[in-house]
Write a structure and sequence with these properties.
It comes from Chlamydomonas reinhardtii. By secondary structure, the chain is α+β, with helices and mostly antiparallel strands. It has three helices and six strands; from the N terminus they run βαβββαββα. The longest helix has 17 residues.
């Protein structure tokens, strides 16, 4: 079982939309800022926080009150790192890279 990176976002959030491109690269191309992502070690899950009917349990469980937010789950499904937004794009991008690197080092 792989670690999971959950990305909580909203369509109404411009910062979320910018970060969604970076998260999409991790998901589709298998890298973030030159760091290779081994698919069997990290799964990426983009969560639409606007769809509260579907994602309310996760939003509550991981205490996501603002978007964008990242939550890194270990292979057993436990939250091992998280961040809440909003922060400047560059900081959130650095957080994404740090979380991916952490997942790859396990």
């Amino acid at each position: 079982m792989a670690s999971t990176l959950m990305f909580f976002s909203s369509k109404a959030c411009p910062l979320c939309q910018r970060l969604s491109i970076d998260v999409g690269k991790v998901e589709a191309q298998g890298y973030v800022d030159g760091v290779p992502v081994k698919r069997n070690r990290l799964e990426v899950l983009q969560v639409d926080a606007d769809n509260q009917a579907k994602w309310a349990p996760e939003l509550l469980h991981y205490q996501v009150n603002k978007v964008p937010a990242f939550v890194l789950l270990d292979k057993q499904g436990r939250a091992v790192a998280s961040t809440t937004g909003p922060k400047p794009y560059e900081q959130m991008q650095a957080v994404l890279q740090a979380l991916v690197s952490r997942a790859m080092s396990k």
